[in-house]
Design a protein that fits this description.
two-stranded antiparallel sheet; elongated; 321 residues
Length: 321
């Protein structure tokens, strides 16, 4: 399986096609090409009966090259890697980086396919696919392409729980450039699956990931903040930055990254946390100190914020961020 990690710390899985499905797709493509070749050849020869034998032979060779070699190249180029056989089997030809193929990729695959598929009856292509780690034949190796599966079983996407409201925008000044994509992916997978783990194991894994993330950013988790809440807040900050970078400095990204300036003063650490047993609660019977557990379960002193003037009427209207 080949993975590409996006800015949202989501792994795009490229699943290489297996040899049986690829062989079936090639057989379907060859069957369609041979039928088209026979129909066009008989039609052209019937229309050119007045020509001599040498001219008819030249036309037959030209039809063979155009239909059995040029046809698949044109179809793959126009359909961006989906021939009739590949469409029936749910396959697609893509570049090594996951992008759509172009004419030069289809040309190289088609020309080398004449040697390794037509002239050797597919023996060279089968051997190359079995030797390759991703099932690529020689045409794919020279063209820099890969045949992947488009129809894959649906998987249940994990939901990343949002951080407590009082942590929103608290890490807006962090430098996240030193955090690798692998660590972002590990944090996201941990947040989506921590409910399936033992509470003590989940807490230990969260502490380890929080320590790794703090070492990369240079800012440890605030005192009394559970590791899962710290990870969720930093991950939300990264996603907000990616959204602003992709869509501009819109109000959606700004509102997601920081609380409203006229919002009422939020309670201190622990007020925005879920009750004991929730995604950010400390596990019962853990090894951490009672002071840390009390900081998680009980609200502390309110965080001072700038309150709106008392003489401003409470109209319920909030200006845009």
């Amino acid at each position: 399986m080949s993975e590409l990690v996006t800015g949202e710390a989501v792994a795009l899985e490229l699943r290489p096609a297996k040899l049986p499905s690829r062989a079936l797709a090639v057989l379907l493509d060859l069957a369609v090409a041979f039928v088209a070749y026979l129909v066009v050849t008989f039609g052209v020869l019937a229309a050119t009966t007045s020509l001599d034998e040498a001219a008819q032979t030249a036309l037959s060779i030209a039809m063979f090259v155009l239909l059995l070699v040029g046809g698949p190249i044109a179809v793959e180029t126009l359909s961006h890697g989906r021939s009739l056989g590949k469409m029936a089997c749910g396959l697609r030809v893509v570049r090594d980086d996951g992008g759509p193929i172009r004419f030069r990729h289809s040309l190289v695959r088609g020309l080398i396919g004449v040697i390794e598929i037509l002239m050797t009856l597919g023996v060279v292509a089968v051997i190359a696919s079995l030797v390759s780690a991703r099932g690529r034949r020689l045409g794919d190796v020279f063209a820099g392409t890969l045949v992947v599966r488009e129809r894959v079983p649906l998987t249940r996407t994990g939901f990343v729980p949002p951080p407590p409201p009082w942590l929103a925008g608290r890490f807006s000044g962090l430098d996240l450039s030193a955090v690798p994509d692998g660590l972002w992916l590990a944090v996201r997978q941990y947040l989506t699956r921590m409910q399936q783990l033992d509470p003590q194991v989940a807490w230990t894994m969260g502490e380890r990931l929080a320590a790794d993330l703090a070492g990369r950013t240079g800012a440890p988790a605030p005192q009394g903040v559970p590791p899962a809440a710290y990870l969720a807040a930093v991950l939300q900050e990264r996603q907000a930055r990616e959204a602003r970078r992709a869509f501009g400095n819109g109000s959606a990204g700004a509102s997601a990254a920081a609380p409203h300036p006229w919002a009422p003063a939020a309670a201190g650490p622990g007020a925005g946390l879920t009750p004991v047993g929730g995604p950010y609660a400390a596990p019962a019977g853990g090894d951490h100190s009672p002071a840390a557990r009390d900081a998680v379960r009980q609200p502390s002193a309110p965080v001072p914020q700038d309150a709106p003037p008392d003489d401003r009427p409470a109209t319920g209207f909030a200006p845009p961020a």
